Every structure is written in C-alpha cells, then in structure tokens.
Amino acid sequence: MVEDITALETTALGSLTAAEHRSDRQALEQWRLTYLGSQGQIRQLMRCIGQLPLEERRTFGSAVQSLAQRLEVAYKASEQRVSDRLLNRELEAERIDVTLPGRPHAQGLIHPLRQTLSDVVRAFANLGFQAVEGPEVEWDTYNFELLNIPANHPARDMWDTLWITDRMLLRTHTSPMQVRTMRMASATARRQGNEPPALRIVVPGRTYRYEQVDATHESQFMQLEGLLVDHQSSFSDLKGVLTDVARQLFGQARKTRFRCDYFPFVEPGAELAMDCFACEGRDPHCRVCHGSGWIEILGCGMVHPKVLENGGYDPQRYRGFAFGLGIERITMLRHGIDDIRLFYLNDVQLWRQVRYAPGAPRSWNREVPE
Ligand code: PHE
Are 247 and 224 in contact (CB under 8 A)? Predict the structure, then answer.
C-alpha cells in the first residue's frame, strides 16, 4: 500500500512538472482535478482507508494525508510560477519603448498669398503706410465714375466687370478705396472745422474680373492699392517709395524702371518694372523674366486732379500718388510658380514643395515646416 503511495507521488509530480514546463494552465487545472479534486486520486485512497485492517489504518491514513499536503504545496508552487511566467510574457509583449522619438504633429502653413500680402503690407508699414480694407461689393460710382471713368467711356474695357445689378458690381480693383478714404477723411475734418489730413494708406483685398481663366488669369485675385496725399508729394516721392519697397521685397540690389502707362485716375501714369532678381539681365532663357531682364510689377501715377476733387481734397492745394499691384503676380515671382490656378487648389502637399525662386534674396529662405 505504501509503495502505491510512493508510485502515485512520482507520477503525479512528474506530470505536474511537465504541465508547468509547458506553461499550460489547462493541463495544471486538469492535474488538480485528477489528484486533488473531489473525485480525485487522493479522495479515492482516503475512501479505501475504511476497508483496511484496523492496525494499518493509522499509518496509511497519515501517509495519504501527508501526500495530499505535499501535492497541494507542489501544485500551488507550480501554479504560481506559471502565472508569473505568463504575466511576464504579456508585459514583455506590451512593453512601450519610451525612447522612440514622438510622432511629429501635422503643422499647417501660411498660404503663400497670405505670406506675400503680409510681407508687402509690412514693407509699406515701414514707410508709414496704414492698412485699411474696403467692400468687395462696390457701387459703379466708386469703382468707375469717381475714378474718372464715366459710363460708356472706352477705358471701362480695361476691367471686365462682374455685375450684380446695373449699378452694383464686384470691385474690379482696390482703387475705389482711394475715393472712399479721401471722402471719409475730408468729411470728418470738415465737420471738425479742420482741413483734410494727409493720407498714407495701403488697401489689401480681393478683386474680381470676368476673365477667361488660364495660367495667368483668375476671376478672383488679390490686389494691394496704395495712396499718399499731402501738400508736397511729387513723382520723385512716388519713385522713392516704390523703389524702396521693391528693394525690401526683392533685395537691396534692385533697380527700378518707370515707363508711361495709362490709367484714367492718374496723371501722369506709369508702369513700374524692376531688374530681374533671378538673372539680373544676364540669362536670355531666364524662367523669371523670360530674357527681357525686367519684370513689370505694378501700375502707378500721380492722383488725377478730378479724383482728388471727388475725394473732397482741393487739387490746387493737395497732390498725391497712387499705385496698385497684384499679390498673385508677386507671389508667382517669388516662388517661381507659373500657374495662378495653383493658388486655389488648397493642396498642402503642393505648398510643402514650393521653395523660393532661384536668386531670391536670402531673407525669403525661411524654412517651410514639414
Ligand atoms: N487699379 C489699377 C488696376 O487694377 C492699378 C492702379 C492703381 C494703377 C493705382 C494706377 C494707380 O489695373
């Protein structure tokens, strides 16, 4: 009988070790039921006790009892080791590598048009020009008539207009703000018994034209208007201001060229070109100036006496100059972009690729965030 107990112990511990080795929870449970369960082998041995002769009962009984204890202890220990091992395995699998570099946050970009607009406004602000904004839906009166472009005047053909009613339109340029600003300033001054103040403003904003859209024309685009009015201003002031701004924007080495041009609201009127910042006139195949060496950037001139008068400023005592430039055009030059339609695709990937045009001043080469 006692040999039976020893044999049972050997097999039991053998299969327990095997189950532990495999980290097999189910096998462990099975083992527990087989040996220690209510139908298990230990119970069966205990049930035999009653059939033994009286003198053997005690020894046998205590042998079974102590076997049961040893198996219980062995089982608990195995079970613990298997649980620990499985838990460790799980922790290992779920381990987080805190030394991995973080994922970068997607970062937005300022749209190149916005960037140019704020650079241009800042360049003029350095010379004391204040930025003001005006309505995009405009009256014929301000967009044309008060700018010395009467109804049926052929000069209206210079601006293909999107009409809203027969008197209301989407402004074709930012020039209506010339008269609006002068009127506002002169009326206020007059109410207070003062003479109209000197003005120095720029007007950034959207403008609209009824255009066939192509690589260089959009039906909606941005302009920046400028207006200076005071007692003394002259054409040389105009040249000085615009040359200074061209140098702020395109590099201190820039040369400017003024040639006659016609706009009904200025007299004389001019077109401003600067020498090519990319090739400085040396490359006949230059992508920026197409070999001419010059880049036209804006229209300008001395404010027409009639326009001053329409603004409530006495043309005998005041003079002024005005200019208007296209923000898309300047941005295309800076970035070497050759299709205006790209500006409105809203494609962030595209802008990540955009770099400044060859020959651009160093100050433009700020990093574009990835
Ligand atoms: N308003 C003109 C245009 O859109 C530009 C301009 C403004 C010209 C001011 C001269 C003076 O073409």
Answer: no
CA of 309 relative to ligand 1 center, distance in Å: 18
Task: Give pLDDT tens digits for 208-231.
Answer: 999 888 888 889 999 999 999 999
107 token code pair = 């970062």
> Is 223 an annotated catalytic residue?
yes
Is residue 322 part of the annotated active site? The answer reads yes
Q: 112-364, which class in CATH? A: alpha beta
- Residue 274: CB atoms within 10 Å: 23
pLDDT, tens digit (0-9, with 9 covering 90-100), for 98-146: 899 988 887 777 888 998 999 999 999 999 999 999 999 999 999 999 9
Q: How far is the CA of 203 from the centre of ligand 1 (A)?
A: 12
Active site residue 93: no
CA distances 122 to 75, 181, 202, Å, are: 82, 20, 10
Q: What is the pTM of this model?
A: 0.72
Contact between 138 and 169 (Cβ < 8 Å)? yes
Q: Which two tokens stand for residue 272?
A: 């401003």
Nearest CA, atom 9, ligand 1: 323
Q: 15, exposed or middle or buried, with CB in 10 Å at 0-12, 13-18, 19+?
A: middle
Q: Which residues contact 34 (CB under 8 A, 6 or more apart)?
A: 40, 41
**How far is 124 from 109, CA to CA, in rounded Å?**
24
Q: What sign results for the dihedral spanned by CA atoms 151, 154, 156, 161?
A: positive
Query: Can you give the residue ranges of every domain in the chain?
Result: 2-93, 112-364
% the chain with pLDDT above 90 = 64
Q: Is the CB of 208 under 6 A from ligand 1?
A: no
Return the H-helix or E-strand segment holding 230: strand 220-230
Name the DSSP class of 217: B
Beta-bridge mates of residue 254: none
Helix (H, G, I), strand (E, B) or coil at 280: coil
